[in-house]
Design goal:
By secondary structure, the protein is of the alpha/beta class. 38% of the residues lie in helices and 15% in strands. Strands 1-11-10-7-6-2-3 form a seven-stranded mixed β-sheet, sandwiched between helices. A four-stranded antiparallel β-sheet has the order 12-14-16-15. Strands 9-8-13 form a three-stranded antiparallel β-sheet, with no helix packed on it. Helix 3 packs parallel to helix 9 and helix 4 packs across helix 8. The mean pLDDT is 97. The chain binds pyridoxal-5'-phosphate. The site of pyridoxal-5'-phosphate has 15 residues, from helix 4 and helix 5.
C-alpha cells in the first residue's frame, strides 16, 4: 500500500534512488557571503550588526514591534516564560502533544505543566478543552490571581503550540486566557510564515517564540527569537538573555542571575541570508503541500490540510506535511515501509504525559492527543529550492 506513496515522493523530489530526508535546509552562496562578512567584521559572537539586522527583519516579517534573538528556541521559550512572570510552583497550561522543549522550558522555571487536549483539525491546543479545565479547576481570588482550587497553586500562563506550522485557534485561546487572567506565550517554533488572517502566529500572545533549528523553515544552524509588542518585556528579555549585564562601556556588573542566551553574530548572518529566501521557501513548501493534497485525494489518503474550516483565515507554512492513518498498526507498517525504502517519515512526538518526567503532571482528558499520537505521521517536506543562489 505504501509503494504508491514512495513512488510519488521520489517523483516529487526528483530522487529515484537517494534517501529523501524529512526536512533539509536550503542554503548556498548567499549564506556563505553573509557569514564571511561576519568573519571579516571580527564580530562573531553575541554582539554584532547581523544580530540587530536579523532581529529587525524577523520583527518586520511577523509584524511585531520587538524581536530578541537567542541561541535556540528552547532558550527563547525559557526566557519568555520567565519575563512573563512564571515562577517556581506555578502551573502553566499547555498541550501534551508537542516537542519536549515546550514542557522543559516550563520545568526550567520551576513551574509544572498542566496538559489540555488538542483539536483534531488544528492538532494544537483546544480552546474548548482549555475552558473546561479552567472552569473545573480554577478560581480567581481577591488578589486578582488565578489559582488551582485543589492545590492552591497559581495558574500563571498558557503556552499553545502551532503544531507542524498549522495555526491553533489562537484568538479563542487568548479570549479564554484573558477571562482567567492568564498570560499567553505562543510556541510558534514551527510556524514562521503561518498566519491567521493578516496576523502572523506568535503575535497574538503577550510573547511569541520561534526556532531556527536546522530542521525549520529557515535556519541559523541553531537559533531562536522572542517577539513581543510590549517594550518593557522586550527590554527585560534582552537583559535576561544577556547575562543580566548592566549596559556600560567597560564595567561588568550584573543585577540578577541571567542567562547567556544571545544568538552569535555568525548565526545571525546566516539567518539574514535565510530571511531573503523565506518568501520563496514558503511558496515552494505550499506547492509541495498542494501536490501531496492532490495525490492523497486521488489515492484515498488522509492528508492534514491547514485548518481553515475551524480556524477562519488560517494559513499554514506547511512546515512538516502529515498524513492521518487508520490506526497504530497501519501507522507502524507505513513507517517501516517508507523508512526501509529510504523515504524518511516519522511519528508525532510521544505525548508529554507518557514520558516519565511529566507523567505525574495534572491533566484534563486527552483522547484526541492519544489518538493523533499513534495515527499521524510526518512525511518529507523540504522546499524544492527557492530560486536564489
Ligand atoms: C514546538 C517546538 N518548541 C520548541 C522548539 C525548540 O526549538 P530549538 O530546537 O531551537 O531549541 C521546537 C523545535 O525544535 C519545537 O518544535
Amino acid at each position: 500500500m505504501s509503494e504508491g506513496f514512495i513512488r510519488f515522493v521520489r517523483e516529487l523530489y526528483g530522487e529515484p534512488d537517494a534517501p529523501i530526508p524529512l526536512h533539509a535546509p536550503v542554503m548556498g552562496n548567499l549564506e556563505k557571503k553573509r557569514v564571511n562578512e561576519a568573519i571579516d567584521s571580527t564580530f562573531v559572537s553575541s554582539v554584532g550588526a547581523f544580530v540587530t539586522q536579523f532581529e529587525h527583519e524577523v520583527a518586520r516579517f511577523v509584524g511585531a514591534k520587538y524581536a530578541v534573538a537567542t541561541v535556540n528556541g528552547t532558550a527563547a521559550l525559557h526566557a519568555a516564560l520567565r519575563v512573563a512572570g512564571v515562577q517556581p510552583g506555578d502551573l502553566v497550561l499547555t498541550q501534551s502533544l508537542s516537542f519536549i522543549a515546550t514542557c522543559n522550558a516550563i520545568h526550567y522555571c520551576g513551574a509544572e505543566p498542566v496538559f489540555v487536549d488538542v483539536e483534531e483539525a488544528t492538532l494544537g491546543l483546544d480552546p474548548v478543552a482549555l475552558r473546561v479545565w479552567l472552569e473545573q479547576h480554577a478560581e480567581i481570588r481577591a488578589d486578582g490571581g488565578t489559582y488551582d482550587r485543589a492545590s492552591g497553586r497559581r495558574i500563571r500562563a498558557c503556552v499553545p503550540m502551532h503544531t507542524l506550522g498549522h495555526p491553533v485557534r489562537i484568538q479563542s485561546i487568548v479570549a479564554v486566557c484573558d477571562e482567567f487572567g492568564l498570560v499567553v506565550i505562543e510556541d510558534a517554533a514551527e510556524s514562521l510564515g503561518s498566519f491567521v488572517g493578516a496576523r502572523h502566529t506568535g503575535t497574538f500572545g503577550r510573547l511569541g517564540v520561534f526556532s531556527f533549528n536546522g530542521n525549520k523553515v529557515i535556519t541559523t544552524g541553531g537559533g531562536g527569537m522572542i517577539v513581543t509588542d510590549d517594550e518593557a518585556l522586550a527590554v527585560r528579555v534582552k537583559h535576561l538573555t544577556t547575562t543580566a549585564k548592566k549596559p556600560h562601556l567597560w564595567a561588568f556588573e550584573h543585577d540578577e542571575v541571567g542567562f547567556n542566551y544571545r544568538l552569535p553574530n555568525l548565526n545571525a548572518a546566516f539567518g539574514v541570508a535565510q530571511m531573503a529566501r523565506l518568501p520563496g521557501l514558503l511558496t515552494s513548501k505550499r506547492a509541495v503541500a498542494e501536490a501531496y493534497q492532490q495525490w492523497c485525494g486521488e489515492a484515498g489518503w488522509d492528508f492534514v490540510v491547514e485548518p481553515q474550516g475551524v480556524n477562519h483565515g488560517a494559513r499554514s507554512n506547511y512546515w512538516l506535511n502529515a498524513l492521518r492513518l487508520a490506526d497504530e498498526g497501519a501507522r507502524d507498517a507505513f513507517l517501516a515501509a517508507t523508512n526501509h525504502a529510504g523515504v524518511m517519515t516519522r511519528p508525532l512526538w510521544t505525548p508529554m504525559h507518557r514520558l516519565p518526567m511529566y507523567a505525574q503532571c495534572p491533566r484534563g482528558a486527552l483522547p484526541i492527543t492519544e489518538r493523533l499520537a499513534v495515527t499521524v505521521v510526518n512525511i518529507p517536506s523540504s522546499a524544492r529550492g527557492d530560486g536564489l543562489a
